[in-house]
Structures are given as structure tokens and as C-alpha cells.
Write a structure and sequence with these properties.
Blueprint: H1 4-37, H2 42-70, H3 72-90, H4 99-131, H5 138-167, H6 170-191, H7 213-233, H8 236-245, H9 250-281, H10 289-317, H11 322-352, H12 358-418
Helix pairs in contact: 1-3, 1-4, 1-5, 1-6, 2-3, 2-4, 2-12, 3-4, 3-6, 4-5, 4-12, 5-9, 5-11, 7-11, 7-12, 8-9, 9-11, 10-11, 10-12
Length: about 425
């Protein structure tokens, strides 16, 4: 395969992933803010996303095997197609339904969207391992660029979702996104170059479970790292900011939507930019895999320190005007440290995983990622309802400490495998 072909395939995969994540970010804000204005409690809002994360756990396990069996392009196209169907279904939501019926319907649609997201993610991340040049730290650069740009696009999606909700309304917004995604799927399918594996018929589902201790510890570190983010990100901070920024009028609600969407978008975009820059920040081109693995635990300790400080500020500040500014600054700092840690993880799973089973290892790893988001989502609503934003942030700090311990165990396992003596 010529050098141009891997680049063309990488560009096509990245474009498809960007389009998906734009709609994914927009859909999350549309659902969260729409149902918050309808009077849903923090716990009920968290329930709306539970099946999304549960579906992600199951999908990642199955997706690795499906890609090994049917090929990466098939799973990538399937992810886009399912997201289109989920957006179309959400347009059928009837405001006259009961709360229970609305929650059940949106949970089911979000579950389908979770399947779509993780099919697309596993396909895109696995493709990088197979397409990136082997020399010069190219693997870290390519996966950091894909992951960082994806998160920047998802952050833009948060802003797009809030703007669409405030201008077009809920139904018109989801239909517009579905139409746009249909066009993207058609374009990617038409122009996708050859170069991605087509699958092997003998792939067994039992192969999805990794027997590599380093991969398993890294997956555990990923679980608690993303739990530490989502425990404040999913429900706690948006609802906290809404309570502070909205005056309860229709105009005030719209203004709050825009401000919350802007913050969430800026957070994700900056997070993505730092992710993309992580190889340069770490000077990774000159570092062996083992040295990068040793740094993962230290970055996780940095992730833990920031929400601990913010939780203390929330307890001291109460409703003080300065608290919002402190929260914004602190969460942006959290995003930068978290981004480096996340980028290191994304590189390590590809570096530690074997090429012949990379879709299986990546699927298992992102199953753990989805489990962390599920745990964080559940604790986000519960923590906010019990102890407000301070408890959300305290729980985030505790989960990041557990992630650091798992990352240290991963580093030790990797060194033992490299030097069994």
C-alpha cells in the first residue's frame, strides 16, 4: 500500500468520525436542556443517558469482534446509519406523553445512539493502529490528532445543539442533523479508499477478553478516569450553571442555554486541542512506550487534585458571586490535565495491543471507558441531588485517585512483561 493510501483512508475515517461526533455532542445538549426545562430532576436526567452508556459497554465488546469478522468499514458505516435512525426516532417524541413514557422512549433512543457512537469510535481508533507508520512516534501523533480533533468537534456540537434548540426547536433540530448525517454517510461510502482490513471468518467472540495484564490495568484506569470526568460533567455542572445563570423567564432560559453550551463547547474544544498537542507536550517522539506508561499515574494524580480543590471552594463559597468564575477556571484546568492523561491512554492501548487482535483489545478497552461513563453518569445525578456540585467534585477526585493506582499497576505489569527477570 502506497504512503498516499493510508493517509487517504485516515482522512476518510476521521471525516466520518467528526461528522458523527458533531451530532453526538449536539444531541446530548438538546436532550439534557430540553428535559431540564420540562422539570426533570437531576436523577431523572441521568437516567436519560444510562442506556447510552450500558449500550456502549455491550457494543464495544461486540464491536471488536464484529470488526474482526466483517471489517472496519462495515462497522464504521453501521455506526453512522444507526445514529441517523436514532435522530429520526427522537423527532417522534410527543410532548403529551407521560414522564415515564418519555423517559423510556428517550432512554431507548439514547441506547441506539450509544451503539452507534461506539461502533464509530472503535472503527476509527483501530484504523489508526493499522494505518499509522511505525517510525518516528507517528502512532502517538495520529491517534492524538484523531482524538483531539474529535473532541474539539464534539465541543462544537454542544454549542450547535444549544443554538439549534434556541432557534429551531427540538424536533426541527434533530431532523436537520439526521439529514446532514445522511449526506456525510453517502459521501464517505462513495470516496472511502481501499486499505482497511475486510475481516476474517474465523474470529471468535471469546477473543474479546484480553489476557494481557497491562491492557487490563489500563482499561481499569480508563474506567475510573472517565468516571471522574462524567460525575460532574453530565448533570452536575450544567444544572448548577443553569440554576445560577437563568432567571426563570423564557429569555433568561435561552440566555442560560447559550452560556452553558458555550462553556461546554469551549471546555471540549480546549480539551481536544490539548489532546492533539500531547505528543509534543510530552516530547513523546524520543520516549519509549515504557516511559510514557510510567507517566500515566502522575497525570491521574493531577486530575484528582483539581476537583478536590473545587469541591472545597464550593463548600466555602456557597452562592458567592466569585464561585462561578472559580469553577470555570478550575474546570478548564481540569480539562487540560485530563486531556494529556486521556491522550496517553489512547496511545498506550494501541501501542500495547497486538496488531492481529487490535480491534478486540480496543473494543475491550472502550468497553471499560463506557463503564466509567456509566458509573459517572449515575453518580452525577445522585451526587448532585444529595450534596450538590461539591459532592460531584469530591467523588470525581476519589475516582481519579483510583485511576492513578490502576495506571501504576499497568506500568508495573508492562515492565514485568518487558523484563521478566
Amino acid at each position: 500500500m502506497t504512503a498516499a493510501r493510508p493517509l487517504a483512508a485516515y482522512a476518510a475515517v476521521t471525516a466520518a468520525y467528526w461528522a458523527f461526533m458533531l451530532t453526538d455532542g449536539a444531541l446530548r445538549m438538546l436532550v439534557l436542556l430540553r428535559f431540564h426545562t420540562l422539570g426533570f430532576s437531576p436523577v431523572q436526567l441521568a437516567y436519560l443517558f444510562v442506556l447510552y452508556e450500558v449500550a456502549g459497554m455491550a457494543t464495544n465488546l461486540a464491536a471488536g469482534w464484529l470488526a474482526a469478522r466483517f471489517g472496519l468499514t462495515a462497522t464504521l458505516y453501521a455506526g453512522l446509519a444507526i445514529q441517523i435512525a436514532a435522530l429520526g426516532a427522537l423527532a417522534l417524541l410527543d410532548p403529551g406523553w407521560t414522564v415515564a413514557a418519555s423517559v423510556a422512549f428517550v432512554m431507548a433512543v439514547q441506547g441506539a445512539s450509544g451503539v452507534a457512537k461506539d461502533l464509530s469510535k472503535m472503527s476509527a481508533k483501530s484504523a489508526v493502529k493499522l494505518l499509522a507508520p511505525a517510525e518516528g512516534g507517528a502512532l502517538f501523533r495520529w491517534v492524538a490528532l484523531l482524538t483531539g480533533s474529535k473532541n474539539a468537534v464534539k465541543g462544537l456540537g454542544f454549542l450547535v445543539g444549544t443554538v439549534l434548540l434556541g432557534t429551531l426547536g427540538f424536533v426541527a433540530s434533530v431532523l436537520a442533523m439526521a439529514v446532514a448525517l445522511v449526506a456525510v454517510l453517502a459521501a464517505v461510502a462513495l470516496f472511502m479508499p481501499a486499505g482497511l482490513p475486510m475481516g476474517r471468518k474465523g474470529a471468535k467472540f471469546t477473543e474479546v477478553f484480553s489476557r494481557d495484564p497491562a491492557v487490563n490495568w489500563l482499561s481499569a484506569a480508563r474506567l475510573f478516569l472517565f468516571g471522574a470526568r462524567d460525575v460532574w460533567f453530565v448533570v452536575g455542572i450544567p444544572v448548577f450553571f443553569y440554576g445560577v445563570l437563568s432567571d426563570g423567564t423564557e429569555a433568561g432560559n435561552r440566555a442560560a442555554f447559550f452560556q452553558i453550551g458555550t462553556f461546554m463547547a469551549v471546555w471540549i474544544v480546549l480539551y481536544g486541542a490539548v489532546q492533539a498537542a500531547a505528543p509534543r507536550l510530552l516530547r513523546a517522539a524520543s520516549l519509549p512506550v515504557e516511559a510514557i506508561a510510567r507517566r500515566a499515574a502522575g497525570w491521574a494524580l493531577g486530575v484528582a487534585a483539581i476537583p478536590a480543590a473545587l469541591a472545597l471552594a464550593a463548600l466555602i463559597g456557597g452562592t458567592a458571586p466569585w464561585l462561578v468564575a472559580v469553577m470555570v477556571a478550575g474546570l478548564l484546568a481540569f480539562g487540560a490535565v485530563f486531556a494529556v492523561n486521556s491522550s496517553v491512554h489512547s496511545y498506550l492501548i494501541l501501542a500495547l495491543g497486538k496488531s492481529e487482535r487490535i480491534t478486540l483489545d480496543v473494543g475491550f478497552y472502550y468497553m471499560s471507558n463506557a463503564a466509567g461513563r456509566l458509573l459517572g453518569t449515575l453518580l452525577s445525578g445522585l451526587s448532585y441531588q444529595v450534596g450538590g456540585v461539591a459532592l460531584c467534585l469530591a467523588v470525581a477526585s476519589a475516582m481519579a485517585l483510583i485511576s492513578a493506582a490502576c495506571a501504576r499497576a499497568m506500568s508495573d505489569a508492562d515492565r514485568t512483561a518487558a523484563d521478566p527477570t
